[in-house]
Amino acid sequence: MVAMNISPEITSLIGEIKNDKVHGASELARQAAKVLKVAAERSQADSAEAFLLEQGEVGEGLMSVRPAMAPIFNIVNSLLNKVAGKAEGMDLDSVRRLTVAKADEAISDSLRAIAQIAQYGSELIADGDKIITHSYSSTVVRMLEAAFAKHRGIEVITTRSGAGRTGEVITRELGRYGIPVTFIDDVDVGLYLSTVNKAVVGADRICADGKVVNGVGTYQLALAAERAGIPFYVLCETLKFDPRLRSDEVDLEEKEPSEVVDLGRLPPQARVKNPRFDITPLELVNGIVTENGLLAPEEVITYMSQLKAASPDIPGPGSP
Fold first, then answer.
1. Which of 204, 209, 242, 278 is catalytic?
2. What pTM was estimated for this model as a whole?
């Protein structure tokens, strides 16, 4: 719930993130940092203390609206903690400038991470590869663009990606870059896997138990890829690793039933389920590409522990 004393403009910006059905977690995390920046620039607070309280309320609103997307929580939580850690003794204008600078820094850090992941990921691709992907990911788009520039004969298969149809977005973006794309319905994945060399997806969260949260349908693709002997890779900046929650504690964000079937077409006793995300276990993943390089599945939990040790302010698994 967004606090009542946040301005209508900021409340509206938070609402845009909540209702965004197209963009991936990294993009929305950067948008969350921009909201904090806008709130700082336009704040009417009359003291540094009031300003920090206001930023905290905006941050709480942002962190609550997309519970499955770890980077929104992480970027907002980190930004607020960095400002609070340096704000003691500062006047209002100094704290405001610090907040704006830290927001810009967080956005730049994320963009650099995506660029590095694109380069590392493109090194997994070879000439003539056909790659299948599922669910929209700006990181996957960047990687495929880098691979297309580096290798000959690259082709991509994209899926409809559930009722939200985010696969149409990634297909248009790849098409604008000139990459040959074949668009299929999700139920056709098994039919086309025999023509594919690699499966590559993004992620919205790597949970404390190492499992991958991504757009619904990712789990089915991973199962099919394993059955077909096709390597399955996840592209994921460190911002998406979340030691707070195990996979069984994550809200998978149920969407409107009308996306699946028109109201009134089914009998009243029929329940319609339309989750936005699903969960893929590590045993189906060949590697997770971060801005620090390729992680083997057995390295993910250790990597998570290192992140937790480096950020002791982040609550551990099971914490609210």
1. 204
2. 0.89
